[in-house]
Amino acid sequence: MNTYITLMKLTDQGIKTVKDAPKRAEAGIKAFEKMGGKVHGFYAVLGDYDYISFGEAPNDEVATAFSLALGSLGNVRTTSLRAFTLKEFTEIVKKVP
Length: 97
Fold this sequence. Notes:
alpha+beta, Alpha-Beta Plaits, four-stranded antiparallel β-sheet, about 40% helix, about 30% strand
C-alpha cells in the first residue's frame, strides 16, 4: 500500500463546530478504513495546519476520493502528500539517469 500524509486546516464552518471535531475525526478514520485505507496516526497540531494524519491507501485513486469526500463536508481543507519510504526512495533514485 502507498503512504500518504494529509495536512488539514479548519474552515470557518469547522471552527464554529470545533466541539464536534473529535467525533468527525473518528468518523473520518472509519470511512477511510471502509475504503481500504489504514490510518496510522492523527494529530491536532500547532502552526500552519490544525491537524495532520498519516496512513496507507491501496492507490492514489482511493486517497484522492477520500480527500475529496472529506473536503466536501466543509469542515476542513486538505493538502495530501504521497510519501515514499527510504527503500522506495532508494529505488527511485536508482532510476535517475
